[in-house]
Amino acid sequence: MQEDKFLSELKEYWLKNDIPNISFTNARFLRDLVKIKNAKNILEIGTANGFSTINFAFELKNLWNWTITTIEFSPNSHNDALNNFEKAWVLTLIKPFLWNALDIIPTLNEKYDFVFIDWMKKRSKDFLQLVWDKIEDWGVIIIDDVIKFKEKMLSLYEYIEEKKISYNVIPIDEDDWVMMIIR
User: Fold this and answer.
1) The domain spanning residue 178 has which CATH number?
2) Model pTM?
3) Model confidence over 159-171: pLDDT tens digits?
4) Could you tell me the residue range of the domain that residue 135 belongs to?
5) Is the pLDDT confidence value at 20 over 80?
6) Between the chain's N and C termini, which has fewer beta carbons within 10 Å?
7) What pairs with residue 144 in β-bridges?
């Protein structure tokens, strides 16, 4: 499979159908982080049509013993993602959940070394709280769109200040800044 061609076609589809996804620049940044971190167990909150999940899978495909768990609330998005995972030949390598992440996360018994939060911006604080004890020491947490949707994420900013959690806000591209927290 030609990965770049597949991802470009997926991008065309989501642009045409107004599906929210990370940019190619952001995807490259996340893939580089996964590689540098040598991540083996990724949790993604907010699957959409699977674009970021597939990017993670393409980055990890030559490694042994890795897992991506991804959670999506919308049945339509979940089904689109499953179809895209199958087309990308990564479906058997991914644990996709269709449910509310606020309910699923507490039931997960694994430890993750990389978490990507890109769903329901006003609940970002809740997601961070729920994943905190599920992150390995020195695990990476990336929260997307922290400048563009800052007004929806005020409780997140208040929480990390209150708990004195160190973070960096990184300008990946002009429309998509991310927050990085190292646990």
Assistant:
1) 3.40.50.150
2) 0.92
3) 999 999 999 999 9
4) 3-182
5) no
6) N
7) 178
